[in-house]
Amino acid sequence: MLVNNAKPDGGQAIRISERYSIISVLNENPSPCELGDVYPYHSVPGLFTPMSVMTFEDSGIGSLQNNPYLALFGRGVLVGIIDTGIDYRHPAFLTRDGKSRIYSIWDQANQTGTPPEGFVYGTEYTNEEINLALESQEPFEIVPCQDTNGHGTALASIIAGNVVGSVSFRGVVTEAELIVVKLKPPKKNLRKLSFVQEDVECYQETDILLGLNYLTQIAGRIHRPLAVCLAMGSSHGGHRGLGTLSDYLNRIVLNPGFDVAVAGGNEGSNRRHYYTRVTDETFTHTFELEISKQDTLFALEIWTEIPARLAVKITSPAGESTRFIQPQLSSCYSFGFIFESSRIYVNNITLEKENGDQLIMIRFENPSEGIWRIQLANLEEEDYAFHAWLPAGNLISNGTYFLVSSPDTTVTEPGNSVYALTVTAYNSQSNSIMPESSWGYTRDNRIIPDIAAPGNLIPCAFPNERYGYISGTGAAAAHAAGTVAMVLEWAVIKGYYPTITGYDVNRLIIRGADRSNQGFTYPNKNWGYGTLDIYSLLRKLNL
Questions:
Q1: Residue 1 banded pLDDT, cuts 50, 70, 90
Q2: Residue 312's domain is classified under what CATH number?
Q3: Which residues pair with 389 in a beta bridge?
């Protein structure tokens, strides 16, 4: 649970910033309406899912590394990964003499060892312990951390994987050191409040926040620049960059030597966003949602634009309706249906604390398959606009979608952060944006994504000494994080700009972006400011 430091709680809290702390709540079986009645929306961590399923010349990296005067391989830079873990035994992460290039691993899921200093769960493994494991016939008896998913290993290899023998593969910064946070599964009580099924792989916001805190603490302690790849995303929140994770990223990248590349999301073609401006003189509007029988638990969020004040009514496929639910400061209403097993829970919150806007959250339990209708009425009796989002990633199937949808404003959190580098994915072979890539802008019309990077069938390492390909904005964010590490090496390690902040790095990357595609005006909601091109950036700096 997230608490504002202005209102301290009686429980033991882990302070992560001047504004926020994290506390654990012992409530194994919360009722759905405790969200709203007991726990405010903003205090309940969101659930995030991975954002992925290379020709270096496409981003100018090969050209730069081949220049002997500006050879940048990430030497002296730390690369931070917060994901599903890493296969530390993979040759892509070993030096020529067989030693690990991983500085440390925090395995949040393993409670058998010693947590990092200042943290209360998980197990930390140092470089020395990892090297002992590599020398052992039974490495997992010393360092039992594994990446059973493979997503984290793939991202780490795109950023910093070695050239291995005759394998046609190489990461962006082959001499950087890695710090890895393996996220643990979310707590069951959070799944229950958020209406996420038990078998869905996802990760909770507080663990990501603490992972970021861990990375920055280590980098600060040993005085090294840090490039972080965050390839998790969520449609939870107001899409204005005002949530807790976005706010924390903003604070990180304003520090010298720290930067974060964030995946923009893969929601562009999933039909999970609805937007309209209502000018009808009745001031009411109905939109439709097709629900698949696969999706037995999920939540829908509706965010209104000021000064609208909306009431909501929901109608099932069989024609049964709720009454109009009025907005209140704190409320939760439960509705069952006579002829169906469906049950819905509705929070119509007049003032959501983090965004200051009205939020209508509708949670579905065993909804009937078919078309559901959601009707909104503005109590102010004037024109209004609103957005609605379904969950991102694998939290629902592709069989649940809006009948009329918009690909705009689909960048996932925390990609709406103001200062982090938000990355979309393009196909470098066809020079086109990947169809699934999320579109900007933010809900308050701020320009995102910032940059486009290669994200289609990117070669990568997988656990157990395997290689393959990965696609999506997560792969693109990894590519961009490697570029960030190169800039940090140039600026901090080589001494050209020792006090550079992450935000400075991002603005330099944006300035150096390739905007030669004559078919577009830049910036735009698909490509941002253009495609990643670090060689162009340093050329423009006369280096």
A1: low
A2: 2.60.120.1290
A3: 273, 301
Q: Cα-flanking dihedrals φ and ψ of residue 343, to 5°? A: -140, 140
Three-state secondary structure call for residue 468 = strand
Q: Are 373 and 288 in contact (CB under 8 A)?
A: yes
Which among 359, 379, 402 is the end of a domain? 402
Describe the crossing of helices 473-488 and 151-160 by its angle, rounded to 10 degrees.
40
Q: How far apart are CA 249 and CA 251, in angstroms?
A: 5
The residue among 402, 430, 460 that closes a domain is 402
Cα separations in angstroms, 376 against 61, 120, 288, 311, 471: 50, 45, 12, 6, 38
CATH number for the domain spanning 129: value is 3.40.50.200
Q: Which domain holds residue 178?
A: 56-268+413-510+525-540
In this structure, how many other beta carbons lie within 10 angstroms of the beta carbon of residue 109? 16
Query: Do 137 and 254 lie in a common domain?
Result: yes
Q: How far out from the chain centre does Cα 372 lie?
A: 29
Mean pLDDT of 492-515: 96
Integer angstrom CA distances of residue 454 from 348, 354, 427: 41, 34, 6
Q: Are residues 152 and 191 in the same domain?
A: yes
Q: How many domains does the chain have?
A: 2
The percent of residues in the chain predicted with pLDDT above 90, rounded, is 79
Residues facing 453 on adjacent strands = 425
Structural tokens at position 526: 């698909």
Whether residue 385 sits in one domain with residue 264: no
| Same-domain check for residues 101 and 213 | yes
Instruction: Look at residue 9 in the predicted model and tell me its pLDDT.
Output: 41
Q: Are residues 438 and 300 in the same domain?
A: no
pLDDT score for 26: 67
Residue 349 CA: distances (Å) to CA of 2, 190, 325: 18, 20, 10
- The neighbour count for residue 380, using CB atoms within 10 Å, is 11
- pTM, rounded to two decimals: 0.94
Question: Do 110 and 85 contact (CB within 8 A), yes or no?
Answer: no
Beta strand extents in 264-395 (DSSP E only): 273-278, 284-291, 297-304, 310-315, 333-336, 343-349, 359-365, 370-378, 384-389
Q: Is residue 476 domain-shared with residue 438, that is, in the same domain?
A: yes
Is residue 522 within 8 A of residue 49, CB to CB? The reply is no
Is the same domain home to 351 and 446?
no
The whole-number pLDDT of residue 539 equals 82
151: three-class secondary structure by DSSP? helix
Residue 3 covered by a domain: no
| Tens-place pLDDT, residues 258-289 | 999 999 999 999 999 999 999 988 899 999 99
- pLDDT band of residue 542 (cuts 50, 70, 90) is low
More confident residue, 45 or 485: 485
Angle made by CA atoms 458, 413, 231, in degrees to the nearest 5 = 25
Nearest C-alpha neighbor of 205 from the set 179, 233, 180, 229: 233
In a domain, 283, yes or no: yes
